[in-house]
Amino acid sequence: MMKLATWNVNSLKVRQQQVLDWLAQSQADVLCLQELKLPDEKFPRAELQAQGYRSWFAGQKTYNGVAILVRDGLPVDDLSVVRNIPAFDDPQQRLIAVTVQDVRIVSAYFPNGQAPGTDKFLYKLRWLDALHDWLAAELARYPKLALLGDYNIAPEDRDVHDPQAWEGQNLVSPEERGQFARLLKLGFVDAFRQFDQPEKTFSWWDYRMGAFRRNRGLRIDHILLSAALAPRCVSCGVDKTPRQWEQPSDHAPVVAQM
């Protein structure tokens, strides 16, 4: 069995202890992090190693940044590490991949997009096109592939607390949902939707207006599993516990057990 998780921590410097605490509680085998917001030289590799996790990361000062933490004892192919989407020229650190046991793990922080029609939205769509094409090639090399991360896409209305209020906006636009559907057409399965889930289960809540207390959230953090990997998954859910801690990230971890 392997427990996979993804968590946008919204600053690893601020939430380093929360990550250490959550790893101790969850006993995750692989944790993908997004929005590190720190450069590589500030990454807490030693602290994580002391708790039994090796780290692969691509950091960036102030913005973005991704990492994959792997429990000691699990074999990792160091030669398989990829940072960012090959052939897509991008200064933003948004993707890292490594092979753990027989599973290709990808941690990705999808662009936010700001608003449809903006330059940032067009960048998001270009980034998604490049991701799709790269993943198609990766799947040929690694049939067992898991894409974990903050997708900044709520794929269906049931993933939105108020679909009418959000209609046409960033994160739920037809273009973004179409890109999510393109990933599924590669053979990926949304691990969360393989199982019965409570209604209005979300992974992100705005810090403002009591959104978490009122459960006014979105499900934008996902674990997609390739067709060869999905049958191994026995559970998937959102762990809202860290969202209740003091000074939490605005996201909660998503966890899949295989």
How is this structure best summarized?
The protein is of the alpha+beta class and 258 residues long. Helices cover 23% and strands 27% of the residues. It has helices at 12-26, 45-50, 119-141, 163-166, 174-185; strands spanning 3-8, 30-34, 53-58, 66-71, 76-83, 95-100, 103-109, 145-150, 189-190, 204-205, 217-218, 221-225, 235-238, 254-257.
Structure description:
Helix content is 23%, strand content 27%. The protein has 258 residues and is of the alpha+beta class. The chain has one domain: Deoxyribonuclease I, Chain A. The strands form three sheets. A six-stranded mixed beta sheet has the order 3-4-2-1-14-13. The chain starts with a strand and ends with a strand. The mean pLDDT is 98.
Question: What portion of residues belong to β-strands?
Answer: 25-35%
Per DSSP E runs of 2 or more residues, the count of β-strands stands at 14
Order of helices and strands: EHEHEEEEEHEHHEEEEEE
Q: Biggest sheet: strands, sense, closure?
A: 6 strands, mixed
Catalogue the unreliable spans: none
Shape: globular
Counting structural domains, the number is: 1
- CATH first level: Alpha Beta
Write out the strand line-up for the largest beta sheet, numbering strands in chain order.
3-4-2-1-14-13
**How large is the count of helical segments?**
5
What's the N-to-C terminus distance? 5 Å
Mean pLDDT, all residues: 98
Q: Which fold name corresponds to the CATH topology?
A: Deoxyribonuclease I, Chain A
Spell out the key features of this protein.
258 residues, alpha+beta, Deoxyribonuclease I, Chain A, six-stranded mixed sheet, 5 helices, 14 strands
